[in-house]
Design brief:
Blueprint: H1 2-17, H2 25-32, H3 38-53, H4 55-65, H5 75-91, H6 96-110, H7 115-126
Helix pairs in contact: 1-3, 1-5, 3-5, 4-5, 5-6, 5-7, 6-7
């Protein structure tokens, strides 16, 4: 469960950047005060920094596989996809089906029920991308 919390905090950080929040990952994690294990803190920071460093490429992958216009996708869903794609393609620390299932569960937690199918479909297609 703590790994999920690490991912959720990373998504929340990525979301905050949509509104030009000026905090750094360490500052954000300190403010959120939620992770205890060093490995969880490192995972969260890696996702935060990695998504921002590779944002253009990750968004290009999302746009390539999205069926609706990106304006119709919510910011939360886009942030979930960014984190999931980063973890699958750049970290590759778990098998893709496990990562996809984890981000579908996170979608259930952070978004509306109908978003699960879109997140699942895009992550499933994105797993074949090369970075």
């Amino acid at each position: 469960m703590s790994r999920r919390k690490a991912r959720v905090l990373a998504i929340q950080y990525i979301y905050s950047k949509e509104f030009n929040e000026d905090n750094e990952p360490d500052e954000f994690l300190g403010y959120m005060n939620g992770l205890k294990k060093e490995s969880d803190i490192q995972l969260s920071k890696e996702i935060m920094k990695g998504v921002l460093e590779n944002l253009y490429d990750i968004d290009s992958i999302i746009d390539k596989h999205i069926q609706n216009s990106k304006e119709r996708m919510g910011i939360v869903e886009r942030c979930i996809l960014r984190a999931g794609i980063y973890e699958m393609l750049y970290l590759n620390n778990l098998p893709n089906p496990i990562i996809i299932n984890e981000y579908i569960d996170i979608t259930k937690e952070l978004s509306k029920e109908s978003s699960k199918a879109v997140i699942n479909a895009i992550l499933d297609k994105a797993k074949e991308e090369k970075v």
